[in-house]
């Protein structure tokens, strides 16, 4: 019957960052606030209804309807979205068999498909790029290479192959990259890749960009074979490298075409190669980008000297070093720095190192300290944090630090400057972190505190059913007082955003939650402690019992009525009293429970409350919280549910409840709700209560007051009544 509106004082429209002061933030805000492209929206609908729209083959896999064809750009995007949403499986990948699709870019990042599905579904296409980053071990690197090499066209024309963090079975032998003669870009980072494989790859005639980070390579001498064509070399954390510094620099000096070089280190491998590189003369004449993050002994003076001798440099990586702090790095025009000296450097590092967990941790820690007391919305930074969370879902340190950063970036009014779509993505990632790390209390606190944000709870799209189920579980499984306060605040708002069917699905969780909420209320009442936890618990009980007879029964069976009578006897605050009345009005709507409310204690307290001047404002609630203030207005869609109660003279308590409820709603907006009451035929019922000889005196007096208070609004309908 009731639902929540959100009468915010701040404008609901996004106020973007200043385009002059924060150009990147302004762009992100514009992009995130813009509607999805029509193609994307259509593909999302298709993906959500694949099994309905796509026929099933005899083997159980799906195929496109016979007359469907996809243009190449749409086919590429469709595959990418399937992968991104985790919907690409052997069953759905079969859609790409045949010639109804025309793929050029095969993005299968982090999917789980078999080698047979990969070969049958993708390797007959004229692929130019394949991104198999982090694919499940069911599809190994040898399988991928074998499949790609099964097509002579792909052998000659495949330009880009990304295999970061893919799997290589033991005893696989030499990886046969040599047949892919068209390759220009190859990423074999974080896989089992040896010096012999590097020697094979270096023979590729078109190779220009190579990433061999965190591999088993012991020597890079084979790179001399491609010294006249290699433009980009990334060899972060080469832990097995067995060459001396002079041998390493002898190779690098020969790579005169290099424009990008990454020799960054790792905390587990304190490397000083970057320091000695800066001392070299006549090296890297065409360098534009140099990454020496994580290197030891790096100083501002050495880096400045190298950059002055290489005026074409546009980027330098200095994260986890002692450099980047001098004015040179902020005044040098056209120079980007990934470091930790300021917010600009941290943002660059978050963008550059999104796939490196060791650096992501460092970036997020720096960001947390930098944004602890920030007062300006920074959507571009929040977007980078979200990317880090998405790329490292099982890294506890990344998720913990990221959750703290999200809290800094969205607390109080900062969320109002964030695009809804971005907040929706972040909310989903927070719930994912909650599920992945159920035992890490501080991470749970960070995530839950972010989720108490009023804008997130009221305006941001996310799976509210799953969220409610998870948070209810937290309520009755954990007794930490701070966490309980956050949990009940979230439950109190989410409860009325669920459909009746969803509430019924939660029955077991709701029963346990009602029991726990009543225990909290009982404890707070015994302590005479009127705090946020009590207020949220009362609100949660009110909302959970709304239009839920089963929950109302559970409330009564757990001695809820006695607890609430004690609340009324202990607290005189109208905010608390209104919540008690609201819940009891839910109980009275359940016919078999109505008689249980007809006790002397209940009637005494209700009579006092209904004649209290403070209750005039009972329907507007203001809730304090440690991070935000939530407000909500209770309103009604229809008065018809009250009519049987208003016409029931055998149960005056029910009449009184119904009359009180209708009166309070009408008092909020008389011009709207009195009109609704009149149009639905409620006025004759009020007149009948006023005139009927069997009417209880209290009920009759309230009906008289009702008609008198709203006389001017009922003029149109009085001629149709006996009043």
From TrEMBL:
<dbReference type="InterPro" id="IPR011989">
    <property type="entry name" value="ARM-like"/>
</dbReference>
<dbReference type="InterPro" id="IPR056845">
    <property type="entry name" value="LRR_Zer-1"/>
</dbReference>
<comment type="similarity">
    <text>Belongs to the zyg-11 family.</text>
</comment>
<feature type="domain" description="Zer-1-like leucine-rich repeats region">
    <location>
        <begin position="202"/>
        <end position="297"/>
    </location>
</feature>
<dbReference type="GO" id="GO:0031462">
    <property type="term" value="C:Cul2-RING ubiquitin ligase complex"/>
</dbReference>
<dbReference type="InterPro" id="IPR001611">
    <property type="entry name" value="Leu-rich_rpt"/>
</dbReference>
<protein>
    <submittedName>
        <fullName>Protein zyg-11 homolog A isoform X2</fullName>
    </submittedName>
</protein>
<dbReference type="InterPro" id="IPR032675">
    <property type="entry name" value="LRR_dom_sf"/>
</dbReference>
<keyword id="KW-0677">Repeat</keyword>
<dbReference type="Pfam" id="PF25013">
    <property type="entry name" value="LRR_Zer-1"/>
</dbReference>
<dbReference type="InterPro" id="IPR051341">
    <property type="entry name" value="Zyg-11_UBL_adapter"/>
</dbReference>
<dbReference type="InterPro" id="IPR016024">
    <property type="entry name" value="ARM-type_fold"/>
</dbReference>
<feature type="domain" description="Protein zer-1 homolog-like C-terminal">
    <location>
        <begin position="388"/>
        <end position="614"/>
    </location>
</feature>
<dbReference type="InterPro" id="IPR055142">
    <property type="entry name" value="ZER1-like_C"/>
</dbReference>
<feature type="domain" description="Protein zer-1 homolog-like C-terminal">
    <location>
        <begin position="617"/>
        <end position="709"/>
    </location>
</feature>
<keyword id="KW-0833">Ubl conjugation pathway</keyword>
<keyword id="KW-0433">Leucine-rich repeat</keyword>
<dbReference type="Pfam" id="PF22964">
    <property type="entry name" value="ZER1-like_2nd"/>
</dbReference>
